């Protein structure tokens, strides 16, 4: 057989774009009050809802515009289902800081926005979930001539200033060690859905639940 096609079944979609960095917003974000993470391999802002601050209004609009493009154009989510921001915070990684493998619990879509990066300051790595057998089971270690999204068990993205990523919250990811002498700053955030998810009986309205 000389020709054929590959059908990508059940892929996990990660969205990447670049929305730039506003210097005034950057200055505001990196000068927040930080505290050590429980894992002790980085720090994050004490304010876990940083995008709700007036100084972040323009940045929040850009993030939501990109999110809407991701969920409507790529994921084709119906327009009557909305995604609301659950939380948002800034991460600071000094030299030798890293991020252990983790997921974002109790959310549907998570994201990261890179405020300040340098060479070797830490790439983000997405890991194939345990039990997700898209090709060969992990109990059989097959060698390949080249690795791509068909057969790799991890995928590395090297961020730049302004890089914005969205991904399913259940997707396991980690951050490489910062080998640069400069601090790296990024912002994390989570989203959940509200609306009629499947039928009228499964309608979710968190705004009413909060009252």
Can you walk me through this structure?
The chain is 14% helix and 31% strand. With 211 residues, it is α+β, with helices and mostly antiparallel strands. The chain has a domain at 28-108 and 177-211. The strands form 2 sheets. Strands 1, 2, 3, 4, 6, 9, 11 and 12 form an 8-stranded antiparallel β-sheet that branches. A hairpin with a 6-residue loop joins strand 2 and strand 3 (43-45).
What is the gyration radius calculated from CA atoms? 19 Å
Structural class: alpha+beta
The run of helices and strands is EHEEHEEEEEEEEEH
**Major β-sheet annotation:** 8 strands, antiparallel
Distance between the termini: 63 Å
Strand content: 25-35%
Shape descriptor reads globular
Mean pLDDT: 91
Low-confidence stretches: none
Layout of SSEs?
Blueprint: E1 15-18, H1 23-30, E2 34-36, E3 43-45, H2 57-74, E4 82-93, E5 99-102, E6 109-116, E7 124-127, E8 154-157, E9 163-168, E10 173-175, E11 184-196, E12 203-204, H3 206-209
Short description:
This protein has 3 helices and 12 strands; from the N terminus they run βαββαβββββββββα. By secondary structure, it is of the alpha+beta class. It has a domain at 28-108 and 177-211.
């Amino acid at each position: 057989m000389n020709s054929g096609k590959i059908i990508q079944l059940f892929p996990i979609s990660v969205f990447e774009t670049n929305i730039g960095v506003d210097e005034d917003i950057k200055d505001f974000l990196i000068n927040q009050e930080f505290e050590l993470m429980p894992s002790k391999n980085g720090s994050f802002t004490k304010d876990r809802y940083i995008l709700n601050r007036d100084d972040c209004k323009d940045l929040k609009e850009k993030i939501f515009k990109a999110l809407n493009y991701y969920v409507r154009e790529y994921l084709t989510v119906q327009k009557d289902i909305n995604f609301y921001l659950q939380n948002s915070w800034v991460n600071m990684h000094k030299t030798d800081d890293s991020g252990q493998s983790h997921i974002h619990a109790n959310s549907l879509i998570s994201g990261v926005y890179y405020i300040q990066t340098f060479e070797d300051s830490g790439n983000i790595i997405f890991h194939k979930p345990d039990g997700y057998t898209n090709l060969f089971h992990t109990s059989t270690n097959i060698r390949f001539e080249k690795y791509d999204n068909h057969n790799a068990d991890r995928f590395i993205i090297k961020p730049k200033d302004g890089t914005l990523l969205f991904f399913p919250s259940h997707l396991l990811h980690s951050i490489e060690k910062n080998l640069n002498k400069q601090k790296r700053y990024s912002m994390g955030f989570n989203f959940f859905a509200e609306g009629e998810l499947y039928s009228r009986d499964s309608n979710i309205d968190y705004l009413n639940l909060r009252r």
